[in-house]
């Protein structure tokens, strides 16, 4: 029993497979409360298409406030093709975009790691990906996602013009580069900064700011620079050349998805999106799986719950400083994989195919050992 | 002998390995003139770092005018790290950007094709890439590469702000989509249009315009839509699902490089960038290998000349309507690969490693047969 007040956790399952995989996390939370004497102050709410259906908006201000008040947010996934034609201000995706921006969650940490037991799940040759362990640090509250002017205007002849603006300032670049350098110090000590400085001035500024910060404060870290198109190629050619990659919002979106697909097991990969600690040391933080809402398999009970479970383990470690419990969960997941159980997405010859809930059962069973 | 005037060809070798691989093309041109009675009106000039060194600018107006006057441009590659720190208006890359824009070369056709003899050169499993044949149609004169406002400004506190603007209009999207649909009709009849419509209004307009054009004129072609991040993943997961991909300038830059790296033989892939035919039926066109200037191996005589040679074959077919000669060259390349010769980039066990010029000799030898 701990004397600290129960940690406040906001749970936002979202759309598609979100609720299914989140259910397995709540079973683990119950286990932690019953068997480890922990207690969490949990609130759950709707976001994305689920919130649009109920409240007519992808996320309510009330939910943003709950997120601000929480010690951490555990997010599922948003996106639902049924809302494809409803207009730009009614996209389910606005839920995650607003959370990132309102809470100033500027650094998205996306690991691309190959689990030894799953090396064959990759479409890449085992020799190319065995032992792969990249961390992509993606800026998430700036760039072309949020810059103004933006919109679609009608021209005099009736045709249209779509506009978006990429903006990055010195301070926006510096704070996310700092996260990357700090992480590299705890890893293999190498950062690769990625932009298109040969075409975009915002990329040129990106490169300059990262170079300056490195010279001033991080000379012990090895820094390299790469163009985004080359980075996409190098991730396919020889992904193990990378340790930490730091890049802007749009390139990060594409390159981190690419990197995670190299592992062949998207259903395994968690992520964290972090803000800046306030004067009381409180760090705004949101954890979510890398995979999306996967509407094509939603409701069938076959989704892989592991990315969501590992996102929760990451939350326990980073936000609640519960290292032991994080480790327990990560070990349980490893052991279940070693024992040969697989959900459909990571299935291979000779393994046992199981449903979402049987995978959850097995992980709980391991925790009980 | 033909009664037509000799076709005007502008040859721009550029930087790095550009001149080395272009040399092998000029030997083939000589062969065509001597052995097939063809005659070409050839001009050669400097671009990129080579032009910066000689004239202080990456491309002279005079060269743009020569390109405009030519029946086709054969381009090598530009980019030279020695010019990295010289300022945004002195980048070697401006040579290709200006050529694209001044000649309104709006559609870049980039095939990603796996040669049977080279299936093992890919880092992907043979089963995933065998028979791969994708055509990426990338818009090349619009989007964030050319939009205004752009630049780096200094803020009152001395920090900086980098800005770029993504702009697409209905007509810019329509003309490149038309190229993609027309190509699909000659291939497997499928187009996948790629954007980030869940985040960018310019992407939303892109999707709408492609959808409308399809409904009006191309119902016989199968059209699908994909987000750019998902497309990067799908290219790794199952690249053979694609036939023609059409996308904007920036996404096209990244995704086409990614797609070509899937083949494992970047040194093999040609590309064409086309404009709109004028009232005399003259089509502005530039041909270049997909690979860049590869400064790390320049001057060693080990670069693969095949992408440059196949770019020339593509030029003969598309711009000069010399189908037989195009075919001759393509067959010669195939036969040389079948015979087991390989440059370093596509080397594998049991094959014979050869230099740039020996590869050129072998292709000429095949032509002579
Ligand atoms: C849902 C979508 C808006 C989002 C993004 O593009 O950032 C997603 O792709 C991600 O990477 O988290
Ligand atoms: C050289 C560079 C400006 C260019 C681009 O980004 O378009 C290159 O990467 C390409 O794809 O042709």
Automatic annotation (TrEMBL), chains A, B:
Pathway assigned in UniProt: Amino-acid biosynthesis; L-leucine biosynthesis; L-leucine from 3-methyl-2-oxobutanoate: step 3/4
Alphabetized InterPro entries for the sequence: IsoCit/isopropylmalate_DH_CS, IsoPropMal-DH-like_dom, Isopropylmalate_DH
Site (Important for catalysis) residue list: 145, 196
PROSITE patterns, per the entry: IDH_IMDH (PS00470)
One Pfam match: Iso_dh
EC class of the enzyme, as a word: oxidoreductase
Binding site residues for substrate: 100, 110, 138, 229
Cofactor: Mg(2+); Mn(2+)
Cofactor note: Binds 1 Mg(2+) or Mn(2+) ion per subunit.
Keywords: Amino-acid biosynthesis, Branched-chain amino acid biosynthesis, Cytoplasm, Leucine biosynthesis, Magnesium, Manganese, Metal-binding, NAD, Oxidoreductase
Binding site for NAD(+): 292-304
Positions with a binding annotation for Mg(2+): 229, 253, 257
Domain Isopropylmalate dehydrogenase-like: 8-363
Domain of life: Bacteria
Subunit structure and binding partners: Homodimer.
Similarity section: Belongs to the isocitrate and isopropylmalate dehydrogenases family. LeuB type 1 subfamily.
Role according to the record: Catalyzes the oxidation of 3-carboxy-2-hydroxy-4-methylpentanoate (3-isopropylmalate) to 3-carboxy-4-methyl-2-oxopentanoate. The product decarboxylates to 4-methyl-2 oxopentanoate.
HAMAP family: LeuB_type1 (MF_01033)
Name of the protein this chain belongs to: 3-isopropylmalate dehydrogenase
Species annotation: Acetobacter indonesiensis
Taxonomic lineage of the native organism: Bacteria, Pseudomonadati, Pseudomonadota, Alphaproteobacteria, Acetobacterales
């Amino acid at each position: 029993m701990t004397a600290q007040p129960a940690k406040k956790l906001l749970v936002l399952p979202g759309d598609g497979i979100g609720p299914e995989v989140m259910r397995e996390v709540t079973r683990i939370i119950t286990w932690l409360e019953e068997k480890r004497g922990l207690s969490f102050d949990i609130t759950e709410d709707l976001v994305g298409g689920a919130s649009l259906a109920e409240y007519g908006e992808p996320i309510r201000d009330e939910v943003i406030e709950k997120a601000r008040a929480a010690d951490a947010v555990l997010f599922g996934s948003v996106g639902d093709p049924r809302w494809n034609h409803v207009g730009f201000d009614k996209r389910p995706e606005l839920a995650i975009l607003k959370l990132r921006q309102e809470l100033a969650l500027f650094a998205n940490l996306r690991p691309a790691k190959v689990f030894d037991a799953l090396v064959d799940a990759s479409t890449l040759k085992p020799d190319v990906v065995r032992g792969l362990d990249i961390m992509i640090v993606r800026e998430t509250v700036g760039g072309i996602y949020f810059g103004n002017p933006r919109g679609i205007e009608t021209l005099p002849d009736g045709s249209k013009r779509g506009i978006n603006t990429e903006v990055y300032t010195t301070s926006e670049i510096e704070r996310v580069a700092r996260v990357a350098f700090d992480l590299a110090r705890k890893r293999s000590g190498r950062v690769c900064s990625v932009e298109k400085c040969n075409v975009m001035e915002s990329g040129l500024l990106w490169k300059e700011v990262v170079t300056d910060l490195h010279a001033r404060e991080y000379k012990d870290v090895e820094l390299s620079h790469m163009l985004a198109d080359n980075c996409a190629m190098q991730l396919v050619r020889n992904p193990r050349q990378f340790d930490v990659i730091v890049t802007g919002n749009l390139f990060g979106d594409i390159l981190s998805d690419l990197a995670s697909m190299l592992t062949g097991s998207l259903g395994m990969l968690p992520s964290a999106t972090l803000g800046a600690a306030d004067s009381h040391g409180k760090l705004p933080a949101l954890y979510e799986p890398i995979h999306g809402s996967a509407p094509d398999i939603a409701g069938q009970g076959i989704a892989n719950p592991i990315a969501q479970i590992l996102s929760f383990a990451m939350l326990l470690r980073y936000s609640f400083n519960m290292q032991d419990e994080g480790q327990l969960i990560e070990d349980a997941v490893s052991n279940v994989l070693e024992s040969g159980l697989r959900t459909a997405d990571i299935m291979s010859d000779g393994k046992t195919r199981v449903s979402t809930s049987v995978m959850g059962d097995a992980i709980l069973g391991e925790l009980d050992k």
